[in-house]
């Protein structure tokens, strides 16, 4: 009961003017009991009722007005404007130009003197910079409309960032997004403000933007209902006429608005259009058949409805002296935006309401709706200090634009197409993550060069060859080190007794993983025997190289897979599936995919071998195949998306989606060099940038010295760069149908694409 009294007292003080709008406390709309009478108390309803009861008819009408803030006012002019508007009791203000500092100060002043908190609005379709010359401007919507659907998160983030900056500036409503369908190239006012000429694509992007902005508590307003896209007249200058049928309007113009309503957009703006299929007498903004019958009743919209600016010539050329404002209320709009003469409009509407009970009742309903909106969008944030977004927010905006440019860059497409045309690979997948976000996810070409071959998709599964070394074996060794069951300075022979009486008895885990154990690079063991243990026996019997130093070797990782098996008690494939792939929900990452329910149609074939025929679903590497498909040097299959998740987990220091898979110190241990003084660039399992980067290196020259990754014989590559918070994955089956000529490497396809990514980031 004490809380109820406190709230009631506060509301009374607010209404009496003792407490300013900037001092409003936050009260969440919860339901509580009052004493023993079992009466319910709802703060939102109570606040709305309390404010509403203090307003007379003219003040209720004024609450339905959002007025334009004049430009370039001096201090005395601003004070006079505030006195006039607050004296009338207008519901809100809308800013259109100036600087952020000036707008922030005016907002503070206006709110401090307002009897009822003001709804502060802006028309910032591409950010606050659309109106404030010192704020950031995003590209126009048409640029975002070029994104593929899997990159719609970029639009969400844009809406979220604009919403965040609006909140900082004390703005509650942003008149965005534009969800008009850009179906008329002669349209003089929509054009690049629209996302697309595809109604569903417009809807998808509009929803993403609105959800992002509304996640910050800022009202999104879909515009311009019922659709301004197919016009050739600017409604700022005259009234456009639309003569399409109801069926056409329903399937094209109205489609994005219907989808926005389903998604919960909180505001809707009515355009100034003559839509003859619905109303031949009045513009849409003044039309009851459009605002009430169509939007409210047929489409079931229950949010706040704004007119477009009533001061636009599409209205003022015909309707003058407050009549447009009266018709707008009669049509069913909640808020009249930018009335040319506020006091005159209030007079006309009040005079009509004095003899029209229905109009009087509708004014009351609209006033309550506006007050409910203020409770939700103004009161919760009124205690927040109004501040100007600074360099941190500008940097956040630039990150979004960088990701947009990465997603839309087509020079990557050209590089891939050259490789496909040259028969360097029949197709490929590319995934790029920037700061944990997917900015490129593309599939190119076909599974083979056959004319009727299936196209590559994001679900195509590739034999990743030596990338197995990092995406399986190295992960397993890291996990064992994490668990204290293995140390990198341990000798392999500690766990592999069959090495103790060989020249490999003293090779350490660290040496094997850094390719400096003097092991041979490769041997055709598959020609001599088959079976996991039999081939490992031949590896044990092999002769070490006399020369010290780094020599890339499969043999060390074949032995390391056996270390994993003997230490953990389970084969490598089972160990990594248990500790990484299953918990990370990597459903396409496995050894022997044919045995794991992956359809052969999804698997990219590799070589057309003289002995094995066309290889598809079995590992291409002959030694790994002879070992049963599971080895430490090759055998893993995956998709670019799933490998990107593994690399992102490592980039995150062993954590992914809130779950920790490895200790951060373990990741750091394995991704740094241990034999650099001996001229060895490699880390433990991972390859590293060349000491002197080259355009013909295994990674692009722009990759940092802290970056790490690996490449694979079948035409694969994974690379992560902590300095740029970047993950790059390229998968192909360049060995199909023959592995003899490695055109993919000669053409630098993988690294040229990676280089493009860095150059775009550097912009």
Question: What characteristics describe this protein?
Answer:
763 residues; alpha/beta; eight-stranded parallel sheet; six-stranded antiparallel sheet; 39% helix; elongated; disordered N terminus
Describe the model:
It contains 27 helices and 25 strands. The protein has 763 residues and is an alpha/beta fold. The protein has an 8-stranded parallel β-sheet. A 6-stranded antiparallel β-sheet has the order 14-13-25-24-23-22, sandwiched between helices. 50% of the residues are buried. Mean pLDDT is 92; it is low at 1-35.
Strand order of the largest sheet: 11-9-7-6-5-4-3-12
Q: What share of the residues lie within helices?
A: 25-40%
Total strands: the figure is 25
Low-confidence stretches: 1-35
Mean pLDDT figure: 92
Distance between the termini: 60 Å
Strand content: 5-15%
Report on the biggest sheet: 8 strands, parallel
Q: What gross morphology would you assign?
A: elongated
Question: Structural class of the secondary structure composition?
Answer: alpha/beta
From the alpha carbons, calculate the radius of gyration and give it in angstroms: 33 Å
Q: Count the DSSP helices.
A: 27
